[in-house]
Amino acid sequence: MPKSIAIDGPAGAGKSTIAKKVSAELGFIYLDTGAMYRAVALKAIETGINTKSREDLINIIDNINITITHDDNVQKIFLDGRDVSEHIRTAQVSAGAADVAAIKEVRLKMVELQRRIAGEKDVVMDGRDIGSYVLPQANLKVFLTANIDERAKRRYEELVLKGQEVYLEEVREDMMNRDHNDMSRAFAPLKKVPDAVEIDSTSMTIEEVAERILYFYNNYANI
Questions:
Q1: Which residues bind ATP (predicted)?
Q2: Is residue 223 part of a domain?
């Protein structure tokens, strides 16, 4: 039976970076679920749909084609046959992703895909509701967090490196709005489940966090 590690937490906590490292160490597939919601948001933006409009999103969700490939543990996401792995990382798409992720019908569609992948391969999956909703039977659940200033700084530096013109305070404000939306949405909100290991990465290196997760997996995971 395929094994799984669920990593949840707020934006900018380092989930994707850590999940990639842990999956590489274990030989698991890394699945960035947030990229799926970003792809839906990109589709909405490109077609002129309001990312908060449930009715409009429902109209496109059944016809949207999102596929994921892995090459040497590097995930690529395709939207209607087009590689959008870089296009989905803009601030506009990030804000839109929080909107579409709050729509129940969108989440159900994405969860269906996520569970299908986890049912076929060993995975490290990160997102907002993996341990609580997508993979409640995951072998190990981790809730990864960091303080808001550190998270905003990390995201700001990431966007600047990609050549985007952004301001730290704007990134911080967007992140706070994202946190609020993620934690207050009615369906599958961001939360720490009782059986998750909580790790605060504020003052930790990537290697230290990865080592902590691997320690818990090797010694305490439900395998």
A1: 9-17
A2: no
Element (H, E) at 33: helix 33-46
Strand order in the sheet with 197-200: 29-32, 123-127, 4-8, 140-145, 197-200
Extract the annotated binding site for ATP. Answer: 9-17
Range of the domain at 126: 4-208
Q: Indicate the number of domains in the chain.
A: 1
Q: Are 100 and 46 in contact (CB under 8 A)?
A: no
Whether this model's pTM surpasses 0.90: no
The closest of 185, 165, 153 to 13, measured between CA atoms, is: 153
CA distance 196 to 5: 11
Summarize pLDDT for 64-98 with one digit per residue, the tens.
Answer: 999 888 877 688 999 999 999 999 988 899 889 98
